[in-house]
Amino acid sequence: MAYGVKLDPQPIGPGLSVRDLVDRHLYAYNAARLREACQLFARKIAQPDVTIGVTLSGALTPTGLGTSAIVPLIRAGLIDWVVSTGANLYHDMHRSLGFELFNTTPFTDDRELRDKHIIRIYDILFDQDVLLESDEFLRQCIRGPEFQRTMSTAELHYLLGRYTQAREQAIGTEYVSILTAAHECGVPLYTSSPGDSTIGMNVAALALAGNQLKFDVERDVNETTAIVHRAKKGGGQSAVLIFGGGSPKNFILQTEPQLQEIMGISEKGHDYFIQFTDARPDTGGLSGATPSEAMTWGKVDPDQLPDTIVCYADSTIVMPILAAYALETVGSRPLKRLYDQRDTLLKDLQDDYERASTPHHSDEILGGGGGTAVGRGTPDVGH
Length: 383
Known about the structure:
By secondary structure, the chain is α/β, with parallel strands linked by helices. Helix content is 48%, strand content 12%.
């Protein structure tokens, strides 16, 4: 048969590497999707001309996956920008401050834990004081003079990364948070819903006391769009690697409709799409939305659908496997340091937006000059 690759199962022996496990023993179903995702990432996505965006949702950093998987990928130049829930960045600070989290059974007495002021995240436990002390550290940071203005979440997290880095060095811990690694490597970290986390809650509380820090969510939208715009305009490609779903998934994917539908800039969509999720597509929810569905919104290049993969598996299982496979197979790439280029990227996007908004260019678009047909033109009154 010429319909696929022959399955050639071999006995598993001692000393098996992660690379050989993936390449030779993940045969079918979601195991095969994980193999395909690892191979696609290593063989096509991890090329120097591909800009790699990653999303993080769900409680991933309390497990330790931030420092064990995401930080090595950042330092290896295999993650160029990130959209995360605020919770993942907040909980990643605990170990940077010297606090401990513990593994337990999920079948515990939550009333007893509540009485003892113990917080539970499924099978992870930590003392309530961990939250209180982390909040105090966070407030001390954002009371500083450099925080007394409106800024994008990328700038907020970059500044916080300098403080987590200093604290990690001061207490002599080997732990490295995502905030620290991103600060060191110039990787911008965005939070799509900055008010929906303990970081946002502390910012809001201090605002009542006169603190001037505010989130510039419009800049977040434009910066992320500018990153994708530059990646594609320069002849390169854009890849998205999605762990979970939720708001971070939409935020990283909406960069393409922002270019096409809103700004009138001719584009076709992200080139590579990998998602790890446990959400079903048939319920109509965002996190189960497939690459082909995203293609209809202009989020994914229809010509690149063969290079899109959805693996229905727990992120805590696949993340360490993909990271180990990529680091062993690819090694590293030069850092793009996109954080340092944000102003230049924005200026480039603004210039192209202004050109796309000129009457002559608009007439070309309305006449079918290569752009998408979504959201273009002036609606008739009454329609």
